Amino acid sequence: MININPPNKREFSLANLAPDLTPLLDIIFIVLVFLLLTANMRLASLPMDLPASEHIAAIMPSEPITISLSNRGPHLWGIGDRGFSNQAEFEQALLVALLAEPERAVALASDRNVPVQRMLDLFALLQKQGVAVAEIAMQPHTASAP
């Protein structure tokens, strides 16, 4: 409510005539939130084009370096058929394999329950070594799988 003549003071003030802007600010924030939620955002995802099994030989001329991550057993890391229980030993062996054949493709086979942090650490190591593309081995989804 606008009170032109306050009971205690007889002086005129423009502050007493100013409208309350609180409802206007509420509406502006609601519109801002609505626009932010409905804006088209680019999804951060990796495009994957998985080849069919008969075309794998044509796409990959040589056998890739297969890196495996597991949650079970004594070997939590693996390169090919060789297992490692120590991350430092695994990283050293991976660096040796990458230096021996720098053009060789890298494929990652990970257990379903491996923490994402271990995969991110591996991707960071591969990126540091200049491996631009690493393939992720996936098993097709079947209806009988839990």
Descriptive report:
With 146 residues, the protein is α/β, with parallel strands linked by helices. The protein has a domain at 64-136: Nucleotidyltransferase, domain 5 (2-Layer Sandwich). The protein is 33% helix and 13% strand. Strand 2 (77-79) and strand 3 (82-84) form a beta hairpin.
CATH architecture of the domain at 64-136: 2-Layer Sandwich
**What's the CATH class of the domain at 64-136, please?**
Alpha Beta
Main sheet?
5 strands, mixed
Coarse shape: rod-shaped
Short summary:
With 146 residues, the chain is α/β, with parallel strands linked by helices. Helices cover 33% and strands 13% of the residues. The termini are far apart.
SSE layout:
Blueprint: H1 22-38, H2 56-59, E1 65-69, E2 77-79, E3 82-84, H3 87-100, E4 106-110, H4 116-128, E5 134-136
Parallel strand pairs: 1-4, 4-5
Antiparallel strand pairs: 1-2, 2-3
